[in-house]
Structures are given as C-alpha cells and as structure tokens.
Fold:
Amino acid sequence: MAPLQFQPLSSQPTPSFWSALNSLKLDKLKLDDSEQPMEAWLEESREIHDREKGGTIGVSGSVGLGSGAFGQESGERPPAGSVELKGVFKNYNTIEEFKATETKKEIFNSVADSILASFETNAPQLDTFLLVTFADLKKYIYHYWFAFPAVVSKPAWEIEEGGLVAAEDQLVAEARKLADDLSNRSGALLVRGPAGQRTAAPVKDATAFFEGVPSSERIVAFHDPSHLPDAPGWPVRNVLFYLASKHGLSDVTILCLRSGSSSRIGRVSLPGPLSAEKPTFVGWERNKIGKLGSRVADLGPMMDPARLADQAVDLNLKLMRWRIMPSLQLEKVAATKCLLLGAGTLGCYVARALMGWGIRNITFVDSAKVSYSNPVRQPLFDFEDCLDGGKPKAQCAADRLKKIFPGVNAQAHAFTIPMPGHPVPSTGTEATKADVAKLESLIAEHDAVFLLMDSRESRWLPTVIGASLGKIIINAALGYDSYLVMRHGAGPDQQDGGKRLGCYYCNDIVAPADSLSDRTLDQMCTVTRPGIAPIASASAVELLVSLVQHPLGINAPAETASSAEQEPSKGSPLGLVPHQLRGQLSQWKTLLIEGAAYDRCTGCSKIVVDAYRKDGIDMLLKVFNDLEYLEKLTGLDELHRESEKAMEGIEWEEGSDEEDF
Amino acid sequence: MAPLQFQPLSSQPTPSFWSALNSLKLDKLKLDDSEQPMEAWLEESREIHDREKGGTIGVSGSVGLGSGAFGQESGERPPAGSVELKGVFKNYNTIEEFKATETKKEIFNSVADSILASFETNAPQLDTFLLVTFADLKKYIYHYWFAFPAVVSKPAWEIEEGGLVAAEDQLVAEARKLADDLSNRSGALLVRGPAGQRTAAPVKDATAFFEGVPSSERIVAFHDPSHLPDAPGWPVRNVLFYLASKHGLSDVTILCLRSGSSSRIGRVSLPGPLSAEKPTFVGWERNKIGKLGSRVADLGPMMDPARLADQAVDLNLKLMRWRIMPSLQLEKVAATKCLLLGAGTLGCYVARALMGWGIRNITFVDSAKVSYSNPVRQPLFDFEDCLDGGKPKAQCAADRLKKIFPGVNAQAHAFTIPMPGHPVPSTGTEATKADVAKLESLIAEHDAVFLLMDSRESRWLPTVIGASLGKIIINAALGYDSYLVMRHGAGPDQQDGGKRLGCYYCNDIVAPADSLSDRTLDQMCTVTRPGIAPIASASAVELLVSLVQHPLGINAPAETASSAEQEPSKGSPLGLVPHQLRGQLSQWKTLLIEGAAYDRCTGCSKIVVDAYRKDGIDMLLKVFNDLEYLEKLTGLDELHRESEKAMEGIEWEEGSDEEDF
Structure:
C-alpha cells in the first residue's frame, strides 16, 4: 500500500473569456463585487504525438474558462466529452483587495463550506471551483487566481500495491457508454456488475447502488484530467471523501477515464473512522513559477488597437453609469447622428465633446479652408493643414476625428449654405438648388443639427428645414466675451401642445439679411476671448445630451432651477434642460433664459414653415433674392408700419434735461 | 515745337512695406481709417547691361515703398541718391469701401487741393503722392492703388524742336553737386550762371533767383525717374506748373538728371495765360494690364509659413484690442511662462486655451503614457499615440503643440511628483530628491503653475513650492458634473498686507494623504461628463489671464460682482478676478467663492512654508514618509484632540425623534 496522490488542476482561460469578463464588469457588475455563479469545463487528459522521440506523450486536461462562463450567449462551446463544472466567481474592485490574503482565504473557506454543506443534500457539489480576479480594464491586464477546493483526507488514503494499472478496453468502453447514458455530464459515476452487463448510478446514490456489492466490485469511474500513470486527477478527491464520509465506503476501485487507450484503474482504501473535526481544504492553483500565487493575463499587446480604443472610449462613459447615474441611457446618446454646420472654432470643439460622449456619427459642412490663424483656436487643425492654401476645413476636421478615434463615422461636405439677402445670380440658380437639396437631405439623415457658423443669416435655412422636419437644433454663437447656446423649439408641429419654445430668430423683428459684405477685419474674424469657444461648445453638447436624455426629448419644456425642483423625476437625469444659456465671461455668469416662439418669426413660425413646405426651393429663392419677402410673408412689414405710425404723434423734445435720453 | 509728354510713375512696394503696414494697422490704426502721413523714395532711372543685345538699356526709377514708410524704425534705407517723397496714406477697413469709386475720387481731390493750397505757402508740396489700401490681414493679400497727382496743363506745354538731347557731362556734374549742397533731397532745384560758376536755389525762390536771368539760361534740374529719351518723368509736371503759375515763368530749360551718362536737357515753353479755373489733376497708377485700376499683392505664397502662423495667431488677439479692449496688455499675457502639472484632460485643454491667448512658453510634467481612452477626451492626443504601450504624455503633448503652432516653446518632463503619505523607500530617496529638485527649478523658471493632476495629494508639493516662491498657482479639479477652478493666494509673503486668500488645502483640517491606492476603476479614471473638462480648463486659463491683467497681479483681492462695480477701473480689463469658481453643470451654475488663508493650512501657511524654506528636502521627506508630521507641524493634531475633548461631555441620544439627525 502507498499513499494516494493526485495531480493538481490547472486553469486555461481563453482570450474570449476575458472579453466576457469585461462585459460582465462594465455592463452588469459595475462596482458589485459579490460572488457570482460561473461555469467552466474540464477536459480529460490527452495523448499527443511526440515529434522528437516518436510515440505518444500524455498531456493533462485543464479547466477551461470560455466566453460562456457567465451565462452569456456565446459561440464558444466546451470541447466534446468535457465535463461541465460549476464555480464561484469574485471580481475585486481594487488590486489591493485582490492581493490581500485574508479576503481570499475567506472566500475559499466559504466555497469549501458550501461543498461540505451540499453533502447533506441530494445534490452534492463535488466539482465546484473558485476564480478570483482583478481586472484592470484600462490596460487589459487581468490578475486572477483559480482554485479547486479539495478535502485533505486524514488519515491519508492509500492505493493497493502496484498502483494504478491500465484499464481493460472493454470496461472503459462500457463505463463511457454508461456515463453518456447517465447524461449528466458530471465528473464521476458509480459502476457495478459483471462485464458486458454493467450498470451505473450517480454518486449520490452510492449507499443503495452498492448495497450487497462486494467492495472489490464497486467502481467509481470519472473523467480524469491527469496524465500521470500513478496519480488520478484532483477532482476525484471530493468524490472519494463524499463516498467515504456520507456513504461509509472504506474501499473502492477507481477507474480513471483518459483519452485513447491510456485509462487507468486501481483499488484504493479510504481508511476511517474519519475525524470528527471539520476537514481542511486545499486547492489554489500554482502560478507559472510553481509558487502559490496569482497569475496575470496581459491582453493589451494581442488586442486589435482599433478595438482597444473602441472599448476604452466606452469605458469612461460606462463608468459614469456605475456609481453616479444608473439611469443614463448611453446608447441613446451614442446613436444620435450629429450634423455640424461650421467646422471652425465652435465646430471643432463641439465635435471633440461629442466624441467624448461616445457619439459615432458626425458630419461637417464648411466651405472654407484652414488658414494660419485657425490651429491655435480650432482644435482639429494643425499647422501643416494651412500650407499650400489650406486644406478644406470640413474634410480636414473629419479626417482628424478618424485619427483621434478610428471607429468614428465622420463625413464632410464643402458647400456654402444659401442665405437670405444674398441674391443668387441667374447663372447660380442650379448650384444653389443643389446646395439646398444637399442640406435638406443631410438634415433629414441626422438627428441633431448644430448651428456653428459665423454669421447670423447662414443659420436661417437650416432653422427652417429643421423646424419643418422636427429635428433637434442646437445653436451656438460667440460674442467677444459672451456666448449664446440654445436649442430651438420643436417647430410648428410640436407634439405635446405645451408652450412652444422659440428659435434663434424669434426675438427679431427684422428678417435676416446680408451682414457679411462690408465687414471690417475684426468683424470678419470672430474676435472673442479664447476661452469662450470651448465653454460654449461644451455647453452646447451637454445641452444636446441632456435633451436626448429627457423623456420628452425635443418637446421638453424650458427648465429652470425651480421647475426642476418640483418634479425632478420627470426630467433629464443629467439635470436641467434649459432653453437658452447666455454666458458672460467677465462676470463668470450664465443666465438661463426662456423665449417663447413668435408667430411672426422669420425662422420657425407656421407661416414660414408652411410656405417652405408648399413651395420648397421656389420659396427659398424668393427669400435669398428678395430682401423684403420674408417680412411681407410674416407680416413684420406691417408691424413696422404700425409702429412708425404710432410714433407719428409724438414730438421729440430736444435739449431735454434727461442726459441719458 | 511738340507737345511735352511725361513718363508716368510706377510704385514699387517691398515685401517689408506690407509688413510695416500690418504693424501699423494692427498696433496703431486698428479701425482708424483716417488719412495718415507716409514717406517713400523716388529713384532716378538707371542703365543696365542688356545681356541679349549687348549695350545698355534704360530702366525707369520707381516710387519705392519700404519698411520705414510709416516712420517706424527700420533697417531698410532708401537707395543712395534717391529723392524723399511725402505722401498721404489711407487704409480702408472693408474691401467694399476700397473698391468704391467715390471714396477714392474724394481723397485724390483732397490731396490735389492740398498741393494747390501749398503753392500759396513758402513750402510748396510738389512731390506729394497718395496710397490707398485694403489689407486682408488674414490672408496676407493687399489691395492697393498708388497715385501721384499732377496738374493737367491747359494749354499743353511744348518742347522745342529736337526735343530732349543729351546733357553735357560738366553741367550734369555741376548740377548734381549743387543739388547735394542744397541738401534738401527734394526732387528739383533751380540752376543759373555760366559753366563752372553755376549757383542753385530751391524752386520756391524762382522769382528772385531768376530775376534778370535770360530765359534761355534758366535751368530747372531734377532727379528724373524716366528713362525715355524724349519724355521727362512725371514729377516735374507739378514743378513746371508751380513755376509757371506762381513765378510767371513762360519757358525754362529742364535738366533731367539720370544715372550714368544718360541725363537729358531741353527747352520747354509753358504757354500762358493759365486758365483761371481750378486745374484738373491726373495720376492714378495703371495696373499690370495697363488699365486704371488697383493692384493686388498676395504675400501669402512667398511668406515663411511658420512666420505666417506666428502673425496669424497674433492677429486674432490684436483684433480684441481694436474695438473692444484697448487697455489689454497682450504682451504681458504672451510673456507669461506656464508650467502645466498634468497632461491629461485638463492639461490638454488648458494648453490649447493658453495657445489661443498667444502664450508661447508651455511646459508639461506628467509621468503617464497615452492610453486608448485618452484621445477622445484629451485634445492633444491621437489614436496612434496609444500604440505600442503609448507615448509618454508630456512629450507627446509638447510635440503636438509644436505641430499646432511651430513658434511655441513647448517642453516636457516625465516624472512623478512626490506626495504626502506616499512613503519613499530608502532605495528611492535619491530619485525623490532629484524629482523635488526638478520640480523646484521648473516652478522657479515659470511665472504660473497649473495644478491639473488627478489626485488631491499630488498638488501639495507644488502648492508649497509655489507659496514659497510667490508664483501664481491656478488649480483645477473635476467632479462628475462639477468643477473647481481657483487661484491660490499669494502665500505668506503677500505684498499688499490685505486679506490673504487661501490655497487648495486651506479648508482642510486633515493633511493630504494617500488616496491613490485602493481605488476602484471609476476612481482611477476621472469619471466626469465630457463637457466639464473644456469648461473648467477654459475658465482656468481665463482666470490666469484676468489675473495677469489685474494691476495687483497675484495680490489682487477676490472680486465679486458688487466689488467690481465699486471700482471698475482698479481691476482687470477682462472683468472680475474671483478667487474660486465652483461650477455645477446640472444646474448650469457657477458660484464665485472667496476663501481666506488658514493659519494652520498644510499647504500655504507660514508655518509650513517656513519649515520648507529652512529644511528643504529633509522637511519634505518627513512629509512624504510620516503621515502625522504635517498635522503635528501645523497644530492640526492638537485641534483634533481639542474637538474630541469637547465632544466627551456630550451624550448622544439614540432613537431620537429627529430622523434627519
């Protein structure tokens, strides 16, 4: 008789396992570090051809950890013939917790206790493993430690003289068939009876099944991961302990089912009585240098960089949801297609903030080229983009977005948006029609339109088209040390019947006209404190995202600090969704302003939108060519006459005492 | 007799002339489009060797416009022997004004009128020219039109049979000497007398000088730009008209001084009586295609792109000064050397805003590498910077600044700033000493230090060094949807004796300690709404610039809306210079907060700064290694004991009625 020894188990996580762990952590667990159920598989040992020496060599089976470990749908299947294992998974939130000995001892003991407790039930857990991890999702480095807790038998078990011997092929074949018939894919089964007429039962039925069977004919067969001639694999330890302690077996024959013709058999004695004290468990996997310690999987170098970037970008966003804002609908934000009219200072900063929010579809429209003064203020351009007359801004901005993040879908169009009061020469009518059609289809294809141009009148056409199509319009305009950021109201088709919010033109009582000719240099350049643009752009993007998160979307009312306090649950999880922000940098002040829609508005009123819908390009050409058309259409001209008339009776006093007159 | 014809003048602006115009416009005129005096020079015609045909050909002299045209100090001197011209310069603010015929007619006539008016004085202006321009400073395209208004003589002047003939060398030599002796470098002079004994006088003295001189011996000599054998140059027209109309000369001999041996001489008759009506003037230069029209100088392609960028960056800034903020001291801003501790989200955005303000010296300190999640949030990094483990962030950020603007002086240093509560192992003492020394010298070399790190305790060391050296410290920190931007007070050496403002640590009653270990993933990444960083960064830079512009600089009091109203002239031209800004994005709100310095502050109190000054690195090592040292030093530990003692007598009621207890 010699002491019975067991070959320890080794774990084999596949790369897709780590990917599954990523998803579990980011999307489900977040900061939850409680124990989770998980699955794995156990392979029998195999024989492989030894190229060097000829003949075959044995290779141990591992515990395979795959993409389906956490119950996700997965294309990855365990190899045929492998045993299903159930386990316990725990991911620590910090490397320090992971490294602490105490926490790992605790969970190991708790798994051991649950194994012992299961012995008292009708479903003993004999194949339970443990995996603890710390996942550095920023670097794709995974610290992990696998354990298969197994009882230490006291006194030690022994194997009969001669040890394990080759098992007869017929017995092996019969046992395999019986195992398949039992079809529980568990690790071990009981076998009895004469050759050719053998029967099987699950381990839990040992007492009844082996009743009256001579001890020499009681066979415990199991799928064996060990390839060592004299040592069975680790998992049978708990099986034997269970049979000894719960079913009183003091000796059995173990049949180690191994692949090919390498299965082994032998008789073992399980001397008793077992100690009354709680048994101890062992089973932490050794690391690559043979020590008891955790392992590290560094997937960074083997991952596709573009995919790494993709996941990394999502990471920061998902982290927001973890602790702070579980109700945040990131997918809704990410799915918002954004059209940026203008690729200047505002356009560049807006695009960057949109990328930060995970928005993947960004289209620029701009007809200008990158000039030397741009790069220090427009954060998508470099000095070299200015050379040789300058690259087209829209395309250059889109190209840069791809350099920042290859996963973005960035498009560019270079054309000038037709404007009221900028007459179209007859030779240019076709080109203007094409530009209008292009803008119409672009707005139709996107969910949100940003007005980021440097003139008042260029915002008119997208305002009308947006109001007609019910698109979200976010408008940003810069002053010297002030800015306006606003969302346009929902347009004349507003759904909820509430008070309709105004657009950029609702406060005007004159129609937009040519303000571009006859400008001095400081009017041609946007003269503004350098800090204004990033503040306004970031605010514009945050306003869009807040609006997208609001349950009423484009129909959300203009919120103020007091309105939100009344019914916070009905609003956006990101906070207030105001109508207009007016910022003043010299005072470090931002005013939240609400402006109602104006029924004579030249941009979003029903009159204008209806005329556009009815006559399309013909109506638009009138607007471009005829300075007075819009004011006539909306009745603003009449209003002017009325107010002039009202003035007539008044005599202005000259030289009055009021100096501030 | 044949009608006397004149060779029209051509203008020849040098590239440095346009550069001088740039400076005049940007720094002095701004939007002032009033008429300005200017200077030019007129060259005599030259003979040059004709390579093709052999022999010499004549080349007209031009009106040279150079870098000294507007009275600036200039290395450029008019060519030897050239005549000084005085002129009138007018720059239009818009291309439309420049192109309008009326405005140009007006100014031409006004110059002609002033020429005529000068005839009645003792200093007739016979050489006055006019230059009108429109300068597109963004593109370096200059529209200009030169004129030399000259009288149209009615009836026409005539030249005697035979026209101009070669002048005798002796006469020419004598006339040149007399011109030099007159040393007024004007275009024309009067000469009389027999060969070898000739004398000269300025044109204004004609009546007296030619008294009794036979008309055939009255010589008008002038430096002649014409190279045509039979036509004198344009400028002599006004001389002849002046002599005829004011001095009653009806015929004179003109001596056209030309270079080499090509001078010409001839007798002209100036028939009278001159009409009583106001004479008409002509003299607009023809353009390259021979039409009366303006010319364009496009300097863009010939300029050094790096210099173009340099000027373009300044342009936007200078434009601010034009209309809006004449008192802005851009040079003071540009000269501010900035040290950015941290090249992450904040560092990248801060650097961009600093560049926008024209700041040319930016140094980054960061020990991290660019990771995949960075580029969409950190606007100095691209995807490719993440590959192969990532580039060092500080160097990568500095390199990018140079790509944006080659004129920047961007430096990078990769080291970790030692921190309180992060003990230094004995083997690491030398390295820590080196890091401290590096940080000390960097802070000493810069004017402003930005604290843009992602932990609380890493801000401690630069806070203490900055307080000791009296440097401006701007601190920015991000929350999930909030931010803090503040400037530290002037430190214990504050100059003006007023209330001292606090630093980042002045509100704390515990010393900074290790907060970096044991962090969960969302704590390791800065989880923040993407719009927060650009807003906070831009605010931090605007706060710095406002502070630099404040007459009290680092000693400026914490301003609020009401304090500024009292004495706006004593503050920064950019508006309020608050102490702290606390922004809350969910409310779109920014609070201006003032916090006084705390005499037990672990960062900026006199106790701490004095201990640092006295013991230097030894004191710092105690701080890093001994968690309790700072609290003992400042007496915070005593404070804790006192407050604990004060609590002793209090019995806490459990189960009290107050639910919000």
